[in-house]
Amino acid sequence: MDLRSFVATLRENARAANERRLLALTGNREAGVDAAHTAVEAAGVDDEAVSLVTTREGFRYHRLHPDHADELLGTTREIVIFDCHKGFSANALGQVTGAVDGGGLLVLVLPPLEEIPTQLSALVDQVAVPPFSRDDVGTHFRQRLVTTLRHHPGVAILRLPPSTAAPNGEHKEIEIERDGLSNRSQSTPPSDPHSYTDTPFPDAAYEACRTGDQARAVAGLSALSNPSNAVVVEADRGRGKSSAAGLAAAALAADGNDVLVTAPSVDNAAELFERAAELLATLDHPAAGESTGDEADAVDPPLATTAGGRIRFRPPPDAADLPSDPDVVIVDEAAALPVRLLERLLNAPAVGFCTTVHGYEGSGRGFAVRFRERLAASSYDVTDIELREPIRYGQDDPVEAWLAWTLLLDAEPPADQLVADTTPETVSYRTLTTDDIADDESLFRSVVGLLVAAHYKTEPDDIVRLLAAPNLELRALLSDGHPVSVALLAREGGLSSEQQAESYRGRRVQGNMLPDVLTSQLRDPTAAGSVGYRVMRIATHHAVRSRGLGSALLSRCHDEFSDSVDWFGVGFGATPRLLSFWRANGYRPVHLSVTRNETSGEHSALMLRPCSTAGTDLADRHSRWFRDRIAGQLADTISGVAPDVIRGVLRAVSVSADDDELGTCDPADRDWRVLAGVAYGPGTYEAAPHVFQQLAMAHLIRPVAELSPRAERLLVRKVLQCAPWATVADELGFVSERQCKRAFGAIARQFCEAVDSESGGDIIAEERATYEN
Ligand SMILES: CC(=O)SCCNC(=O)CCNC(=O)[C@H](O)C(C)(C)COP(=O)(O)OP(=O)(O)OC[C@H]1O[C@@H](n2cnc3c(N)ncnc32)[C@H](O)[C@@H]1OP(=O)(O)O
Ligand SMILES: Nc1ncnc2c1ncn2[C@@H]1O[C@H](COP(=O)(O)OP(=O)(O)OP(=O)(O)O)[C@@H](O)[C@H]1O
């Protein structure tokens, strides 16, 4: 059979079942790209409905570089071609696949299958981090890709000759390794939608739905008609959640509401606006409003209704300011947005989020892991809706299942009841090599499931790292063979003097996060010479947290490696609980980033735990430098960091109990007098900020007096971060600024009482006596 006839048959087979088919064009790159063009023609698909993901330029189709494959998220294409020869990554593979429509084709341009384990150079570059070389990179992920292509239904594999075009313009015979055809007729049909007459939305909104599930989502979204409601619509890809949001937006606007829509890019919200425009037309509202003339309005003119409502789009950072006070905000592809931005949207009267459940290829899991907690703690009534029935393609679509298998998108941690009784005494410590996880799919799925459920940063590229990266070590605590706590350690440092010099000059050294920051940002020319393990991820099963398992796992890792490296380290989005976890395990802070992490919305803390003389030198000097600079930063670049994070960071400084210098301060005699004046006389904070500054730093590092958490927060916000009185009073719940100022009298008394006679106690006693007489 020639290529054209084969593709036509495959496309027909896909259309009959409303499913996608995967077409692997294997051979050299030129032949593959040529064949992909032929395939588009043979499939009878318009060029406009095709996206080509490749590092090359100059094609007639919509073309994206693989690094920007995320722009396809939430869009629908009839054919997506992914040229995997260059620029391949697991993240990009996940991102492109979800966009293919039912009846469409995912075309992968690949090397011959038997060569894949030694090719896909971008994947190798991604994990071959210094001082390791490309030869050290493992092949398990690439083998896995070959296996899933060879064995999964719905995958057609063609072997291409070096050139598919014969001189007469006809196409040479191709070799069909697998035809990927299925005899199944249409996948299980979806349920029919029905109207929800008990909601404020018109019947037309429900009649426009494709499935019963989608109508249920629209009904749930109708809660947004009332302020103080938040609605979260969760689904796997292609279940029609954006469309449901579009129908809801139209119904809300038809009722006079101002609906602000945001998404990572306006393209991600295309389906939402299309559905909204259709419903507004059905409801007899003009489709477009007046042009705002505002370039920030990516959809301009916005959709408007005769009732005075409208639907407009703003990019996330603008939308977070809630311009022109919308009545309702709807966020599409919420999982792909930074948590920090999502949080700011919680000031809207009513807010809806559409998010992808197993689509961690889109974003990591910041939404599920971090943001969900914040939403639950907010004052909104939260409605949750889950959509199961696929719309973009049939229920039994094989390409969705192929992707889930290849990238373990649906991996889950072990079931709660299997691990419920686990304690640190009942577990065994295991090294999990890349062979171990490659050979035991169930173990691999549990490990990935644990990491995905716990970590907002986990993404498909991590599957590649787990299976191929030469610098990683995976350790786990197993209970009856089930992983309950896992740690992924990345070997860093040990760089040559040339690499150290380069890093000092500011050039990033891939895969060496801690040495890199210590050298280039914190200006330590020799920091990258010593070797350490950075705990890249650690996660304990949610059902057995706070039982000491995470600490037990770390302790076993420390025991195993402390003779072979100089330090252990960690970098993470700082929260008070995590700071206390790392502190309890002997890590002390050496850096707190001045900017927030885009995904977690948190400031990153770097911490070190030395285990050799060189490591101790490194940790000691960085700890000292950190203490020297943080006071200045607190009043400036990190003046907005939450006081409990600052309390946690400063308390962790004193982790090495034998450092006598820590937490000491030596105010002058006059300063003790001024402090006593605030405590017992008419003195005020304003006369003594410098004394409070010294005492606050000393106390927060190693407690001097018995202060309540609120008093400590006051020290952080007012004394160290220099926030205005009104702000501090408001944040800390004082009824007035006056009461907030008075609290300093009590704090001063507690400090005075804690000071012994040698330090300044005698002076304080003398001063106190003057007021009491
Ligand atoms: C580089 C990084 O990986 S940093 C991110 C660390 N990982 C995560 O945040 C993933 C989600 N969290 C988890 O998986 C776990 O909570 C871990 C790994 C942080 C701790 O594992 P555990 O087995 O609970 O640790 P362990 O029982 O030894 O210590 C618990 C202490 O850790 C701290 N802690 C931090 N976060 C949490 C949390 N989410 N749940 C419970 N305890 C937490 C607390 O101080 C806790 O003490 P407490 O129970 O007295 O309040
Ligand atoms: N009610 C509807 N009417 C017409 N087409 C619809 C409807 N619902 C969904 N679709 C079509 O089904 C496909 C998937 O819908 P949609 O983009 O809303 O799903 P999604 O769950 O948001 O997908 P993704 O996770 O990829 O963003 C789109 O092509 C969309 O046009």
Question: Could you walk me through the main structural features you see in this protein, from its secondary elements to its overall organization?
Answer:
By secondary structure, the protein is α/β, with parallel strands linked by helices. The model has no long low-confidence stretch (mean pLDDT about 90). It contains 29 helices and 21 strands. The longest helix has 22 residues, at about 615-635. It binds acetyl coenzyme *A and adenosine-5'-triphosphate. Acetyl coenzyme *A binds near residues 537, 550 and 570.
Helix and strand arrangement:
Layout: H1 3-17, E1 21-26, H2 29-43, E2 50-53, E3 62-64, E4 77-83, H3 90-97, E5 100-110, H4 121-127, H5 140-151, E6 155-159, E7 175-178, H6 203-207, H7 212-221, E8 229-235, H8 241-254, E9 258-262, H9 270-282, E10 303-304, E11 310-313, H10 316-319, E12 328-331, H11 339-345, E13 350-356, H12 366-377, E14 381-387, H13 398-407, H14 416-419, E15 428-431, H15 434-439, H16 441-454, H17 460-468, E16 472-479, E17 482-493, H18 497-504, H19 513-521, E18 531-540, H20 549-561, E19 567-573, H21 576-584, E20 588-596, E21 603-610, H22 613-634, H23 643-653, H24 669-680, H25 689-701, H26 709-720, H27 725-731, H28 737-754, H29 757-772
Parallel strand pairs: 1-5, 1-6, 2-3, 2-4, 4-5, 8-13, 8-14, 9-11, 9-12, 12-13, 18-19
Antiparallel strand pairs: 6-7, 10-11, 15-16, 16-17, 17-18, 19-21, 20-21
This protein binds acetyl coenzyme *A and adenosine-5'-triphosphate (ATP).
